[in-house]
Amino acid sequence: MADGETENEDSRILSVLREHPLGLSIKEISAAVGMSRNSVAKYLDVLTATGKLELRHFGNAKLYTMSRRVPVTDIINYAKELIIVLDKDLRVLEVSDSFCSFTGSSRQRILHTRLSSLVPPVLTPAEETELTSLLNGGPAWKKEIRLVKGAHEFFLEGRFIPTSLRSGEPGITLILEDITDRRRAEKAVREGDRPLHTIFQIPTVPCFFLDRNHKVVFCDRALEILTGIKSEEMVGTSRHWQAFYSEERPTLADLLIDGDTDRIIAYYQGACRRTPTPDGGYECTEFYPAMKPEGKWLHTTATLIRDSSGQLTGAMESVEDVTETKKRQFVIEQ
């Protein structure tokens, strides 16, 4: 079956289900799109496996609805870290755009390949065999990885996390953070080539992602450092406000998901402005007195996330600590 034909049939099924938010059975979908039940069932299996649909069982009946989760691909492609998802055979099932760019390889060349066979290889064959313990319920582990691309040396901090795939089978998510600048800076300090302050000039912008139900689906290590709250305490909950406020209230990303312009104006008292992005995001600089130790000035930017069909799946909010900049401004103004 041609790819174009598949995409067309997928679009027809998704269009019908958007008009029926409570869900439809295979029989009802088949009648609505004019396809046989067997054909519809095959398309539904693919759409469910890729996270675009959700399946609920009522007795012997199957009811399909539009997914309310952010697809894995959407999340990993917005994250600044390099992310790889492995299947039970330790072959690449999903890979982020950032990893493709880092290696200079296309997604097609990376998918279904083992880590030891990538160019450059992420693990040796011997190291790769150790991953089987994660498939059997072993604890997550960290490993620093050294890669050589041509004449350049790179260092990555890898977090290997046991993962349950949508198929129900075990898998592994590998999150790689590029720490090359940090290692080079440390080496330079040891050798006396650069002053100590260069270590602290490594740029990073903390961020978190919400689904359209205001649940945290991802937050990066930089946000943990900034707020002092571990990602596992926030992921899967709506308690992300605790990182910034002493009392429950929506963040800029929450208000953007709701499309509530009036409340954005009310909460931020005109300090917010639209960003020059197609999704009409917002950015704002505000003082957060509840953040330790004595409050912080943060510049936040919220952007909507949409799937390949243009449907809203959630929002990303990046958080930049601008406290020192604000302090310098106050000194000048005085």
Give a quick summary of the entry.
The chain is built from 14 helices and 13 strands. The protein is an alpha+beta fold and 334 residues long.
Describe what you observe in this structure.
With 334 residues, the protein is α+β, with helices and mostly antiparallel strands. The chain folds into 3 domains: 3-66, Winged helix-like DNA-binding domain superfamily/Winged helix DNA-binding domain (Arc Repressor Mutant, subunit A, Orthogonal Bundle), CATH 1.10.10; 72-201, Beta-Lactamase (2-Layer Sandwich); 207-333, PAS domain (Beta-Lactamase, 2-Layer Sandwich), CATH 3.30.450.20. It has helices spanning 3-18, 26-33, 37-49, 72-78, 97-103, 107-110, 125-129, 132-135, 180-191, 221-227, 231-234, 252-258, 261-268, 323-333, and strands at 53-58, 61-66, 82-86, 92-95, 141-149, 152-164, 170-178, 207-211, 216-219, 272-274, 282-288, 296-306, 312-321. The strands form 3 sheets. It has a 6-stranded antiparallel β-sheet with strand order 9-8-13-12-11-10, with helices on both faces. Strands 4-3-7-6-5 form a 5-stranded antiparallel β-sheet. Strand 1 and strand 2 form a beta hairpin. Helix 1 crosses helix 3 (37-49) and helix 2 crosses helix 3 (37-49). It starts with a helix and ends with a helix. The relative contact order is 0.08.
